[in-house]
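Field guide to reading this record: the first block holds the primary sequence, the second block holds the structure written as discrete tokens, and the final block holds curator observations. Each block starts with its own label. This record concerns Ig-like domain-containing protein, catalogued under organism Bambusicola thoracicus.

BLOCK 1 — SEQUENCE
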Amino acid sequence: MMWELEEIPASQPKMIHAMNRCCDCSSIAIKQKASPVCMPTGEPSPVFFCSAGREFEGEEEYLEILGITREQSGKYECKAANEVASADVKQVRVTVNYPPTITESKSNEAATGRQALLRCEASAVPTPDFEWYRDDTRINSANGLEIKSTGSQSLLMVANVTEEHYGNYTCVAANKLGVTNASLYLY
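BLOCK 2 — STRUCTURE
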């Protein structure tokens, strides 16, 4: 038996920006798997580096992040290098989505006839939507009450406090991944 050898031509390294077919790794839910972010090709096989503030190097052909956390959000730089040509570098931004958590809820003391402000802040990606409740009834901006929600913060303002305004209020923060709430008091 005689073997015939075929010479494989050398080629420069290239980085293929390939997202996993089952998820868009540029925006992924917390605790899920992000894989692959980038895949190198070339002959001879390129050495693969990928970083998000720290360097990875490995035999694998792609980077896989298992049980991704919020802290792993950021810009990843993937580099494929071999001795044929200069390295090819691609960047991908990974955004980790997570449900809201209330980071601050501030009750307030206000005398009748004065202005009062209740503040609620929540951390979430995507940014949460806010709703306010009093005794299980949703509050709208009307009758001296004004709700202002911007980004991760929502304010409930009472223009002229009366005895009827005193009591428990509930701030609800929600996005597509979850809902949370906090009780605040006006006294």
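BLOCK 3 — OBSERVATIONS
Residues 5 and 108 are 82 Å apart (CA to CA).
Residues 12-98 form a domain with the Immunoglobulin-like fold (CATH 2.60.40.10).
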